[in-house]
Write a structure and sequence with these properties.
The protein is elongated and about 60 Å long. The termini are far apart. Helices cover 36% and strands 30% of the residues. The protein is built from two helices and four strands; from the N terminus they run H-E-E-E-H-E. It has a domain of 53 residues. With 76 residues, it is an alpha+beta fold. A hairpin with a 2-residue loop joins strand 2 and strand 3.
């Protein structure tokens, strides 16, 4: 791909991105990178602890800063 085609593609992507006003995430796989620690017992039940993603924690404030509305579907 030559430079002119790259510029056109980037312009089209930027134009499309500017139309986004809200994003919905599920927390499993987005906020948590599918890593879990099992084996801790709490109130007689084995708990599953999820490890949060540092990079996703950075993206949320950036989206908020540019005015993107966000919703997160909680784990059940």
């Amino acid at each position: 791909m030559n430079i002119e085609n790259q510029i056109r593609a980037n312009h089209a992507a930027t134009k499309l991105a500017r139309t986004i006003s809200a994003v919905v995430f599920d927390s499993d796989g987005y906020l948590f990178p599918n890593d879990a620690v099992e084996g801790l017992e709490i109130n007689g039940e084995i708990a599953k602890l999820k490890i949060r993603s540092y990079y996703d924690d950075q993206g949320i404030p950036l989206l908020h800063a540019i005015g993107i509305w966000m919703a997160v579907v909680p784990l059940l």
